[in-house]
Each structure stands twice: as structure tokens, then as C-alpha cells.
Design a protein that fits this description.
The protein has about 210 residues and is α+β, with helices and mostly antiparallel strands. It folds into 2 domains: about 60 residues, no CATH class; about 130 residues, no CATH class. About 40% of the residues lie in helices and about 20% in strands. It is built from 8 helices and 9 strands. It has a 5-stranded mixed β-sheet, with helices on one face. It has a 4-stranded antiparallel β-sheet with strand order 1-2-3-4. Strand 7 and strand 8 form a beta hairpin. The two termini are about 10 Å apart. It holds the Pfam family Transglut_core3.
């Protein structure tokens, strides 16, 4: 995965390059000669011709060539859902419900770029030295809320709420957007290789295109 412009993120699924435009919130499959140029860039083997063609097509900001590529998130190996104990979530369930409700409103109201900017700002804030609530407690709280308020089509809102709560309680959380072909997207949260609200087999079907 790679940021190729201020609002453009891209990844390769096999040999198919896909672009996410966070300004419009839309995904795009690249076809024709441009596909080969973008594939070369994402494979870290671009020629001068590839770069020039992508700049002319408006798909590459030259400034991003000097920026460090964002590291892809660690591949998840386990999930808190497999070990969850609901009794651990009762204390935080009301907080999770409020956080989720706020995130749902923001996702409906705001552009994806605005939402992700807020996520990035939150990631940069100082954290507690010692987490006051465990990852497992946060995962259990959101799974409890999910039993009473199923929002399976709101993975972005749920992930925003989970990442905010984890960071507030001193954990290092990564929000990831992934895609699969034909175009379908999913958003999840992980702490290193541990998934918070998804199982490993579900996430394995998606290629990360953006991580915050």
C-alpha cells in the first residue's frame, strides 16, 4: 500500500492496482497503460517514464516520491473475539455505546478525509504510560453493544470508536481500511497482530490500502 497523492492511496491486489480517493470516498480500478505504470510504482520498480505518466494522469503527486512509504500493518494472527468474556465488558459498555453513537453520526455527516484526519490527530496525542483498561475489556464492551445494537454495515464507525477508546486508555491502535475484488471494502482495528472486533479469516480476504 502507498499514498500517491494528498487524497489518493493505492495498493496491489495480485497484479491489479486499486486507488482509494479519501476526498470522494470512492475506489477506482486503474485500466489501460496507466495500470502498468501504477503497478510498477506499487511494486517499487518505477521507471522515469512510469512516474512521468502517473504525474500527467493526475495520479501521482511528485511530493509523495520524497515521503516515506507508510508501513503496512502487521498481518493479524489472533483475535480478541476468540477469547472474549462478556463479563469483562459491562463496565465499559456505556462508554462504548456513546463512542459508537458519536462515530456513526460523524461518518454520516463528514467526508472520509475529515474523519481520517481526526483519527490521525488522535493517534499523535500522548498516551497513558500504563493502560487503565485492557484491550480485552474494550473488545468485550463493543461486542456487548453489538449484541443489542447490530451495526454490521458500519465497520468504519465501529473502528473509529474502538481506536479512540483504545488510545484514550493508553493502547497503540491501528485503524486499517482494506479492499478485495470485485471492489468491496472493510475497516478494522488491530493492536500489533491482535484484532479487536473481527476474526483473522475475515480480514485475510482484504488487502490493506490505508492504515492510520
Amino acid at each position: 500500500m502507498r499514498q500517491i497523492g494528498r487524497d489518493l492511496h493505492a495498493c496491489l491486489i495480485g497484479q491489479t492496482p486499486v486507488i482509494l480517493n479519501i476526498a470522494s470516498g470512492r475506489y477506482q480500478l486503474v485500466r489501460g497503460p496507466t495500470r502498468d505504470h501504477l503497478t510498477a510504482l506499487l511494486a517499487m520498480k518505477p521507471s522515469v517514464e512510469d512516474i512521468a505518466a502517473l504525474v500527467r494522469a493526475g495520479l501521482l503527486d511528485p511530493a509523495t516520491m520524497d515521503a516515506e512509504c507508510a508501513a503496512a500493518p502487521v498481518a493479524p494472527t489472533c483475535s480478541h473475539l476468540d477469547l472474549i468474556k462478556f463479563r469483562h465488558g459491562w463496565l465499559l459498555a456505556p462508554v462504548a455505546l456513546v463512542a459508537l453513537s458519536i462515530a456513526v453520526i460523524q461518518v454520516r455527516r463528514d467526508a472520509l478525509r475529515t474523519i481520517l484526519d481526526r483519527v490521525e490527530e488522535g493517534a499523535g496525542k500522548p498516551r497513558l504510560t500504563l493502560p487503565i483498561f485492557s484491550e480485552a475489556m474494550v473488545a468485550a464492551a463493543f461486542q456487548l453493544v453489538r449484541q443489542f445494537l447490530p451495526l454490521d454495515n458500519h465497520c468504519l464507525a465501529r473502528s473509529i470508536a474502538i481506536s479512540r477508546m483504545l488510545r484514550r486508555f493508553g493502547h497503540q491502535a491501528t485503524l486499517v481500511i482494506g479492499i478485495q475484488l470485485p471492489i468491496a471494502a472493510h475497516c478494522w482495528v488491530q493492536c500489533e497482530d491482535r484484532l479487536m472486533a473481527d476474526r483473522v479469516d475475515r480480514i485475510a480476504a482484504f488487502e490493506p490500502i490505508l492504515a492510520r
